[in-house]
């Protein structure tokens, strides 16, 4: 089996399993909705009028829900599908890419479902001229978050308390991407032009961790074989 065929098999398997069980997307959507509702009550209404605070609340929600999706990429520590691919004579990086893409798809779906709830709860609006920018920046940030999450999940899934360790490692590393995304999104919600700088920073973040995952996943998966 070639690397491309292995990659497409992993993506199709993950998507088909999710369509049948709906466990990962349901857990992520539930996490996002609960966080949004809690934040809507916890944050003072006058402070929530600040566009940057609104943007921060949105990205905090997506990060917490995205961590659930990354954790479930290697849920339970072991599964026959993952072990089979790790033992097969194919590039192990294809499993990393497949799980990253499937996690990215689930995270994107969760984000699309949560945006209307966010806009209603916080009385926010996105200028029509900025929709393309928000979509591009969101996709870049979610892709980098998925790549980082899958790489860290592969390292921590076989460790006791790996779900907690995953979050402890993931959240600090995400800070540069989150800062760029929150700054740009806040400017957009405030009616300003965010420019290209946030997107460029997120693209650099994506390339860094996609490349790191491609190179390091073989070593990260050694404990699973």
User: Nearest-angstrom radius of gyration?
Assistant: 18 Å
Strand content bin: under 5%
Q: What order do the helices and strands follow?
A: HHHHHHHHH
Enumerate the spans where pLDDT stays under 50 for 5 or more consecutive residues: none
Describe this structure in words.
The protein is mainly α and 225 residues long. The protein has one domain (3-224). Helices cover 77% and strands 0% of the residues. The chain is built from 9 helices and no strands. It has helices spanning 3-21, 23-42, 51-71, 80-87, 93-121, 131-156, 162-173, 175-189, 197-220. α2 packs parallel to α5 (93-121), α6 (131-156) crosses α7 and α6 runs antiparallel to α8. The radius of gyration is 18 Å and the shape is globular. The model has no long low-confidence stretch (mean pLDDT 82).
Short description:
The protein is mainly alpha-helical and 225 residues long.
What layout of secondary structure does this protein have?
Blueprint: H1 3-21, H2 23-42, H3 51-71, H4 80-87, H5 93-121, H6 131-156, H7 162-173, H8 175-189, H9 197-220
Which keywords apply here?
225 residues; mainly alpha; 9 helices; 0% strand
